[in-house]
Amino acid sequence: MSEAARLPGLPRRGFLGLSAGAALLAAGCRSATDPEAGAAPGGTAAASAPDLQIVYGSAPDPTQLLHRGPDTPAFVNLVLDRLVDLDPATLQPVPWLATSWEWSADRLKLVLKLREDVTFHDGHALEADDVVFSLVGATKSSQVKPLLERLADVKASARNEVTLTLAKPTSNLFDALAFNPVVDARTYVEGRASDTVNGTGPFGWRSFKGGNQLDLVRNERYWQSGRPRFERITVRSVTSSQAALSALQSGQGHLIGAVPGRDLKVLAGNPGFTVQSAKASYQQAFLGVNVASKPFDDLRVRQALQYAVDRERIVAQVYGGHAEASSLPWPSNTPGVTPDQVTRYRHDPEKARGLLREAGAEGARVPLTAANSPVFSSLVELVKFDLEQAGFGVDVQLLDNAAIQPKIQQGTLEGLFVANHGMVSVSPLSGITVSGPLQVGRNTSHVTDPAYADLQARAFAAADEQARADVNHELSEYLLAQSFHITLAHAWETYAFASSVRDVSTSALGYLKLTDTRRDA
Amino acid sequence: MPYWTRKAAGALATLWLASVAVFLLLRLAPGDPVSAALGAEADQEQRDHLGRQLGVDRPLPVQYLTWLGGLLGGDPGLSFHYREPVTRMIGQSLGSTLQLALAAGLLMLVLGLLLGAALAAERRGRLARALDPLTTAVLALPVYVTAVLFVFVFAVLLRVLPAGGEKDLFTAPDLALQYLALPAVALALPGSVVLARLLATELRRTRQEEFVLTAIAKGAPPRRILLRHVLPNSLAPFCVEFGITLGELLGGAVVAEQLFARHGLGQLLLDAINQRDYPVAQTLIMLAVAVAVTVQLGSELLVGRLDPRIARAGTGEGR
Amino acid sequence: MSTTTAVGGSRRPALPAALRGRRGRTGAVLVALVVLLGLLGPLLLSADPYQQGREALAGPSWEHPLGTDEVGRDLLARALYGVRIELLVCLLAVPAAAVLGTLLGLLGGLNRLLGEAVQRLFDLLLGFHGLLLGLAIALIVRPGLGSVVVTVVLSALPAFGRQARAALLAQLARDHVVAARVLGVPRGRTLRRYVLPNVTDAATALLAVAMAHAAKIEGGLSVLGFGIQPPTPSLGTMINTGSKYLFLHPGYALAPVLLLGLLVFGLTLLADSFNREKLR
């Protein structure tokens, strides 16, 4: 027995030994916490680090680049270029792969001139045929296919010139051009994109491992000379925001993205880190209403929803302030949108209750469906509480993404639903043409009003900026009045990075632009 | 039928049942791979096209047999999502999970044995007495709590160990071990405490048995009593529990992978389930079941050897 | 295997005896304390665990003794309501699994065919242990309290069932049981008199471990997003969410850790003292 009696000291010693072993490892050999550990010695100047480690909060999905499904990651833009870029301030197209363009007088023909100094990562020069291939591919499988429906013909009219012919005038053609990437016509295979990515962007695609880690290398022939500054970039997907934050705080990750805004609060006031919000985003969260289900066929009930939700609290508590409270689905800098429209519905539970009483729907039990993700479940928590304060009874159903998608696609969601939708931040017309919840003619809200289709037709036909602004204003009024689509907040893409990382910029849709970015070694 | 063949046949039956259950389970779940891959904006034409490509338009028995046949032949097909061979995808993530499970399993075994012996000691010092509530406290702390505390102390405050991620054990063993340290300890602790407590109980019980008392009366040295008489007769339940705990460890590994940002089989499974990537998810779940069943079988056979009464009782049943 | 001591009619009821020791008493007091906190606490508090507010992640104050969570709800109220959910998961689901599992195990011990079928079921459940089972169940029915309770019951079944079966087989082989059968004591009476007490002893000894395990399943599932869904408060989800704010607001995670710890600690002490009593 005495043998056992002497043992008690051992486990503790064992544990200490273990930590000591780890410490020894850290001291003796390389340490995993040393920022440069595992990196091959680089030949760059001492001042600037050769690599950037990105930790991204959602799983990358490079399988269908032309389709650009819901999970196509922001960093695709690091590898692929688009024909035009959008100015973040004005949302107007600015030259990118296309240097200039010209409309015909009847606005049915657009001639795009391409840059001549652009080469793909494999060394062959960008030609008009690649652009034609990418655009034709997008008309078949892209998420924004409806935007290209009026495109009758695309052809290479010269080696560096592409001519687009439209069936009808289209005021938002550039939204699609700014969105869809240009891929290599000779190697690209949709569905197996991760093996075949050959682009013209600042970084080349080296490998994509285990559905999780993306390795990028510097494009030595990038058309912006002297750029980019990093030799390589690693993007790791880490879905737990806590793990992403630990990676940043322990120096293993230099930049993190797609982490829910409120979880970034732990970095507040820490001089070692910068939190930078793009003040823009491709996807927006909304509260959708099926107007075909009771009691939401009554306009007063829908307006009660508008007054019931506390958007300011959502901005603060779900997004940690990295969002804007707004009553409109598109950004407040959209031409034609006025400030009173943005703030039309303010939190007013009394008014909501009054409207509900008036409609005789007090205490009505309504289903609320949402995808099961950290951000959505907290949105749902807040919305449920707010609606209950206003006199609704709310039954929440959280489904995972794969289970909610068919319901959205087939329009079988009853009552209320919280979801994300894209494209609205590009332009109102593109939003109501592409985004399922708002799409004219076929939307999740079951709105079939001819007036809505009429507004869309007028938006398509808008010939100049003034006409576009006017119709945007009217479209905003229409959505505010009909209230079948309750905007909750404009969540901004927000990135956090070590203070040694400088010159991080973002696109009009909030995606990362790392062309100028550098990191102090 | 001998004990072991009966047990092995039972294990095979379990595996087949599991394959049917897994196959049906995923298809019973709402949602489908086509919707998961295409966003809300896809139209029916796009959906039908992808559905045909993936083969989900075929009757269920055909799909089941194709998969099962492939699985038995060692090729469960292509991932619906990445269009890569399932075996290749599993291969890429297997190492990560295997390293974690092995490290944690080993730690659990060693800590379990040592702690168990310490807890069962009859003459207990102050430290031994302190151990008791301490192990109970550890028992009460789940992986997700210890993980957070460890990361805070070792990665964020002291910066001696990485917070998450991984390195390959063969190309960079020194780094890989540092990455393994925190998740392995967090994962092993609760299991080792369960094992230790069980072992302590068994040791105490065995010590009261007549043959041990006889040995003590005959003046055998304590070391001999512990190693020759008490320990072997206490190990059978320990082995069974170790088997079960190892299985649980794989489950805990899913959580640990999430919290320590390791991309192992657990993450692959969660992604596959979210994307309704049936071939990947089915194969992974079957793999987990197969491991659990094998470990179970192994520990039962071991018990049969250590304590032949059980094997005999088993064959004698139902007389 | 741990059921070899109690013999025939001289058996003392182990449970009351277990409560007489210092360990047993401490354990019982701790469990009772947590149970009382869960049952009575919410009645004494004025705060509503579902009442949200603008004051998010606030520190302790007179109004909110533990502060508030990320949507401004009172943390103390949520922790105490969380105890109720935990009691539901640990103190109701696990004993239910114990009874069901023991019955299944005994049933299997009586008839060979039935025994094989039950054995397969247990093997299958063991194959899909804990979290995997929870994932599968949450996939089909919607995740929430229901799916967690079902998961806990199913994952605890095999342990109780196998133990019951082992105890049954061990007892049936014992001399005094064989003797009783030879002497013509009815089978039912033999079972009631000699087997059942041993089986219940074995099951009781397993309870605490299974309960601690249940609490972990609940929390683990919530880490993966398949556990008890908000806004229902549970200790597991609170620990999981609170650990994100461990350094901003330590009380958020530590209060539920403490409550859960006390509960499991108490249960373990009880089980220990029970085991020791049996060995005497």
Low-confidence runs of chain C (pLDDT<50, min 5 residues)?
A: 1-11
Distance between the termini of chain A: 59 Å
Major sheet size, sense and barrel closure of chain C: none
Cα radius of gyration of chain A in angstroms: 26 Å
Could you describe the 3D structure shown?
The complex is a heterotrimer of chains A (521), B (319) and C (280). The relative contact order of chain A is 0.15. In chain A, strands 8-9-10-1-11-19-12 form a 7-stranded mixed beta sheet, covered by helices on one side. Chain A has helices at residues 2-6, 9-28, 76-79, 128-141, 173-177, 193-196, 241-249, 299-308, 311-317, 339-342, 349-358, 374-389, 401-410, 428-434, 450-461, 465-482, and strands at residues 51-56, 84-86, 93-95, 98-103, 109-114, 151-158, 161-166, 203-209, 213-218, 232-237, 255-257, 273-277, 284-289, 323-324, 365-371, 393-399, 416-421, 485-491, 494-498, 501-502, 505-506, 512-513, 518-519. Mean pLDDT of chain A is 86; it is low at 1-28 and 36-46. Chain A has 16 helices and 23 strands. In chain A, a hairpin with a 2-residue loop joins β6 and β7 (161-166). Chain B has 319 residues and is mainly alpha-helical. Chain B has helices at 3-28, 33-37, 44-54, 60-72, 86-120, 126-140, 143-157, 173-208, 210-217, 222-259, 265-274, 278-306, 308-316. Chain C has 280 residues and is an all-alpha fold. Chain C has one domain (14-279): MetI-like fold. Chain C is built from 10 helices and no strands. Chains in contact: A-B, A-C, B-C. Chains A and B meet through α1, α2, α7 and α13 of A and α2, α3, α5, α6 and α7 of B.
List the helices and strands and how they pair.
The complex is a heterotrimer of chains A (521), B (319) and C (280).
Chain A: H1 2-6, H2 9-28, E1 51-56, H3 76-79, E2 84-86, E3 93-95, E4 98-103, E5 109-114, H4 128-141, E6 151-158, E7 161-166, H5 173-177, H6 193-196, E8 203-209, E9 213-218, E10 232-237, H7 241-249, E11 255-257, E12 273-277, E13 284-289, H8 299-308, H9 311-317, E14 323-324, H10 339-342, H11 349-358, E15 365-371, H12 374-389, E16 393-399, H13 401-410, E17 416-421, H14 428-434, H15 450-461, H16 465-482, E18 485-491, E19 494-498, E20 501-502, E21 505-506, E22 512-513, E23 518-519
Parallel strand pairs in A: 1-10, 1-11, 15-16, 15-17
Antiparallel strand pairs in A: 2-3, 4-5, 5-7, 6-7, 8-9, 9-10, 11-19, 12-19, 13-17, 13-18, 14-18, 20-23, 21-22
Helix pairs in contact in A: 8-11, 15-16
Chain B: H1 3-28, H2 33-37, H3 44-54, H4 60-72, H5 86-120, H6 126-140, H7 143-157, H8 173-208, H9 210-217, H10 222-259, H11 265-274, H12 278-306, H13 308-316
Helix pairs in contact in B: 1-12, 5-8, 5-10, 6-8, 7-8, 7-10, 8-10, 9-10, 10-12, 11-12, 12-13
Chain C: H1 14-18, H2 22-44, H3 75-110, H4 112-127, H5 130-140, H6 145-172, H7 175-182, H8 187-223, H9 235-242, H10 250-279
Helix pairs in contact in C: 2-3, 2-10, 3-4, 3-6, 3-8, 3-10, 4-6, 5-6, 6-8, 8-9, 8-10, 9-10
